[in-house]
Amino acid sequence: MTRAEELENRLRLLVNFGGVVSKETNLQKLLEIIAEQVKTILGCDRCSVFIMDRQTNELWSKVALGMQKTEIRVPFGRGVVGNVASSGQTINIRDAYTDGRFTHEIDRLTGYRTRNILAVPLKNVGGHIIGVFEAINKASLPFDADDEGILQLIGSLAASAIENAQLYESLSKSQLETIYRLAVTAEYRDQQDTAIHLRHITEYSGLIAQGLGLPEREVENIRYASPLHDIGKVGIADAILLKPGKLTPEEFEEMKKHTLYGAKILCNAESSLLQIACKVAGSHHEKFDGTGYPARLKGEQIPIYARIVSVADVFDALCMPRVYKPKWETEKAREYILEESGKSFDPAVVEAFDKVYGEILKMHAIGDGKATIIPGITKELHKHTF
Ligand code: C2E
Ligand code: SIN
Ligand code: SIN
Ligand code: FE
Predict the structure, then answer these.
(1) Quick check: is 343 catalytic?
(2) Pocket of ligand 3, candidates 199, 230, 378: which has the most ligand atoms within 8 Å of its Cβ, to mutate?
(3) 74 C-alpha to center of ligand 2: Å?
(4) pLDDT for 129-171, tens place per residue?
(5) Alpha helices in the chain (DSSP H)
(6) Domains in the chain, start-ordered, CATH in brackets?
(7) 305-350, pLDDT tens digit by residue?
């Protein structure tokens, strides 16, 4: 390849890189994608992305040790990586083992033989160093000035994607915690076991979304938004919500308002997750044939999230005891869901429900006494999914 051809080739890879990287919001996956791309673009054997941890003044990275990934940490200012982070300067080493800055620790850990290293700082738009890129063992020659330029360029593209992913992760952790607390508040009055009900709704909704083939991001969204579907019940009086028998028509009219209350509580939220939760709370009692409430929406007018949670909700309501009804056998509940295809429920969603029904049953077994569970374990379980 001539130099011009090589540069053109790299440019093409770079354009592709921007597209690939901007879509991923999961930090760990993003770092893996970046490392893969850098290896291809530079033609080197390894690439590690080190991320600055300001709390401990270290840089961390995940390295593969056999089948497993281990986190390694380098102190700021130490070794090649630490020096790049503290100086903000690129370091290009032709022969690692004769360079005083190179620490052999990672090679010792991985059994890998580092020959040449190109390490560049990762700077955000404000010019702050958020990490270091380290490319190792270029196939033929040591890294040259072109490689330096290109790795710096990749670094600036990657830095903003990495910062976004970091922001997204920290945001969603606190968002998820808030959501779970809200959900517990909403459910604890009329459910015998709030944790189990919320877990069922979460898992059933996620499984159905998967069965529908929705992208992983949407599956996650629906998992986290679904426990809030009945948040509006906080606005319903005990006399109605906890009534042991059948509701009068007037009482049921009042009860229906839990959808409106829920949507109101969650509306205008900035977080996309709460926006989805708002749609679910407002529309989970709409029916596919247009006979539901509160707005008598029909078919695709009902947000897909609500069409999914509606199936999960009714299946769980039927299979669990309520103050106003005993629990149904799961098979009877499944038949009911299938019968209501095209009436209460979106046929595509019912089909997905049936496809993942085996998994749903397994989840159902947790908490209805069929599976052995030690008290406290379910609580642990759902703590972990967050
Ligand atoms: P929920 O108990 O969580 O029930 C959610 C949905 O599951 C119900 O929405 C309904 O579509 C379905 N479902 C629950 N139990 C049965 C059942 O025995 N047969 C059938 N065919 N479907 C069932 P729905 O009807 O819009 O009710 C919304 C909420 O209103 C219920 O949430 C519950 O909190 C309350 N509710 C409904 N009916 C009664 C009642 O007769 N007495 C009391 N105390 N509350 C009721
Ligand atoms: C370092 O000295 O900073 C680490 C070198 C390596 O990654 O092997
Ligand atoms: C729950 O199961 O309690 C709700 C949230 C989750 O598990 O992801
Ligand atoms: Fe509801």
Answers:
(1) no
(2) 199
(3) 8
(4) 999 999 999 987 889 998 999 898 888 888 888 887 887 776 6
(5) 3-23, 27-42, 79-87, 105-110, 145-187, 194-211, 216-225, 238-241, 249-266, 272-283, 304-319, 330-339, 347-355, 357-365, 377-385
(6) 3-167 (3.30.450.40), 188-383 (1.10.3210.10)
(7) 999 999 999 999 999 888 888 999 999 999 999 999 999 999 999 9
